[in-house]
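Run: sequence + uridine-5'-diphosphate -> complex structure.
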Amino acid sequence: MSQTILVTGGAGYIGSHAVLELLSADYEVVILDNFCNSSKESLDRVKTLTGKEFTFYETDLRDRQGLATIFKNHSIDSVIHFAGLKAVGESNEKPIEYYENNVVGSLVLFDEMEKAGVRKIVFSSSATVYGEPEKNPISETAKLGHTNPYGRTKYMIEFILKDIQKAKNWDIVILRYFNPVGAHASGDIGESPNDVPNNLLPFVTQAAIGVRDHVTIFGDDYDTIDGTGVRDYIHVVDLVLGHIKSLEKLDKDKGLFIYNLGTGSGVSVKEMIDAIREVSKKDIKVVVGPRRAGDVGEVVADSTLAEKELGWTAQYNLKDMAESSWRWQEKNPKGYA
Ligand code: NAD
Ligand code: UDP
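>> structure
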């Protein structure tokens, strides 16, 4: 019998790609989302792409009754917990909303899971929990830090999960994502920012298609290959396959596991802009501006632990990331709107 996975935030950017891969791998999927940063369209497209059915609940994480109903209606084997607010800048302006949504929401979910006897979870954490890294590449044992309310919500949830694991014997995988980019090969699902994008890649593809006039490079005086910020970009499909490997891990091994998901290679802002120029054949206007507050020069993952323990490595390269991002942008100039 196939396993049933509850995917919170399943209509979002990473969640919709995860639902697609889970369905393709013959998992039964139940999705919860309140559409605060997504729309039904992503899920309609997943249905068309896979030709498979899933169950969807338009429910908020903090809605205890709603969660209890889901756990009553379905025999859930594991939860993949994507739902949360994720904009660093916004989190500085709206800390209460971020702690409420991410921390309180997660606590309600964990409580209802415990009540329903569901004790397996894969949690979306982030490289942001490393704060300003002391060295690159960063391994899971590196010192943690946090520079904004969003990062602190991830840090807090990680510790809440560690405490629950100790007290209640849950089986948990915490995945620290580096910089997820790219889109499904079809170009039919992808990242659809509601407003001005916070992240580099959607900004660059929007500039290439003419939605934005130019890209501002946030500082070119870092101690990096060309002075611009270096990040470890990872294709979203590789990232979600890491979740399926994590579910398999939880079938075999008991306890709490933490893995970085990245490629181990750094790409600078200039290199990323050039990659999109090449695949789009568009001239992208670039303006160099000051550093963005709170930014660090270089953040690159050491993902050897995920390779060793999950049997997972990233398969897609920078060209694949650029091509799939551009295909999505070209087919959907206004995202899902
Ligand atoms: P997203 O905003 O596209 O998806 C999150 C989904 O959760 C959305 O569909 C939103 O409507 C839903 N949601 C938010 N709060 C909810 C609530 N209270 N109840 C029900 N649904 C709720 O974001 P994403 O990029 O797909 O990110 C998914 C997860 O991965 C998040 O937890 C994010 O913090 C984490 N993450 C993302 C990145 C990244 O760069 N995209 C990097 C590291 C970690
Ligand atoms: N960046 C940039 N211009 C933008 C957006 C981002 O130069 O419009 C840079 C940013 O300073 C960082 C890199 O691109 O060096 C990745 O930024 P993003 O916000 O996508 O990810 P994060 O900083 O959270 O790793």
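>> summary
Residues 4-181+233-263+300-314 form a domain with the Rossmann fold fold (CATH 3.40.50.720). Residues 9, 11-15, 32-38, 60-62, 82-86, 101, 105, 124, 126, 177, 180, 199 surround nicotinamide-adenine-dinucleotide (ligand 1) (CB under 6 Å).
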